[in-house]
Amino acid sequence: MAAEPVNLAEALASFGDIYSPRIVGRVNDYDIRIAHARGEHVWHVHEHTDEVFLVLDGRFDVTLREDGGERTVSLRQGDLFVVPKGTEHKPSSPGGSILMFEPSGTVTTGDRHEGEIPAHVDSTAGHDLGSAGA
């Protein structure tokens, strides 16, 4: 990946797929990914890594299963939230865009997930910016 500035608004405008992240940079062994979010994702867990979400625009909710119950964290533009490793979670959004920071190779549907993956969710480790979705 070339060492060039990336304008996130332009990068987001270059694709329309939802829940299909594009890799806009790398830091050591981590990807910096952006994605459009709309609708429900799938319940999943990343056993060995935390997952960082930064809302770039719109709203993004993350429902967590913890301590025998569920709670939903609602995020708006500029909000950052870390899902701790090993925590089952299910993102959803009425519409927005997010930036994620996670180890390269981390799959969007986790190490394990619940139920079938919806057609609008791309189970991927990310696509290079400018490439087509899966």
Structure notes:
The structure is a single chain. The protein has 134 residues and is mostly beta strands. It has a single domain, classed as Sandwich (Jelly Rolls). The chain has one helix and nine strands; from the N terminus they run αβββββββββ.
Q: Kindly report the CATH topology.
A: Jelly Rolls
Beta percentage is over 45%
The general outline is globular
Elements, N to C (H/E): HEEEEEEEEE
How many domains in all? 1
Major β-sheet profile: 7 strands, mixed
**Approximately how much helix is present in the residues?**
under 10%
- State the CATH architecture: Sandwich
Rounded radius of gyration (Å): 14 Å
Q: Termini, distance in Å?
A: 20 Å
Mean pLDDT: 91
Summarize the structure.
The chain has one helix and nine strands; from the N terminus they run αβββββββββ.
Describe the SSE topology.
Blueprint: H1 8-13, E1 22-27, E2 30-40, E3 44-45, E4 51-66, E5 69-76, E6 80-83, E7 88-103, E8 112-113, E9 127-128
Features:
50% strand; seven-stranded mixed β-sheet; globular; mainly beta; 9 strands; two-stranded antiparallel sheet; 4% helix; Jelly Rolls; 134 residues
